[in-house]
Amino acid sequence: MTTPPVDFEVLRSALRATMRHGARARSLLERMSLVDLLNPATPGDGRPDAQRALETASLITDAARSLDPPMDRVMLIMLCLAPGTSGLTLSARRRHAAELLDIQPVTFRSEPRYEPAFVTELALTLYGQLTGCT
Fold first, then answer.
1. pLDDT at 3
2. Tens digits of residue pLDDT in 104-117
3. Per-residue DSSP letters for 109-120?
4. pTM (predicted TM-score)
5. Percent of the chain residues past pLDDT 90, beyond the cut
6. Angstrom distance (rounded) from CA 81 to CA 117
7. Which helix (H) or strand (E) is 96 found in, with range?
8. Residue 122 C-alpha from the chain's centroid
């Protein structure tokens, strides 16, 4: 998958927005902004949106899995990529992630070293993969 340069801040913002509904292919297909950012359609490639959404979900899953523990598990939960998380609300996923870290959900959400830092780390991982700076 080859992509044009992507703006890091746009990528980080798109990842934060994606947490509301998750990064499974079905959710990405319903909200194509992250797919268009990470896996844009190119003239003549003929890939349907469903294929691009599947590829993007795989890219995000692989990037999340490459993070250090427990950040890897937390981001898989937050993005509905961990088994059993697809039907959970964002609040429920935050509670589950906070339990893994032995902190309160409000601390996880608002403390700069938790959710905001984890999203930034995932965005940096994806950015590195897309730009070849890994």
1. 46
2. 999 999 999 999 99
3. HHSTTTHHHHHH
4. 0.91
5. 86
6. 19
7. helix 90-101
8. 7
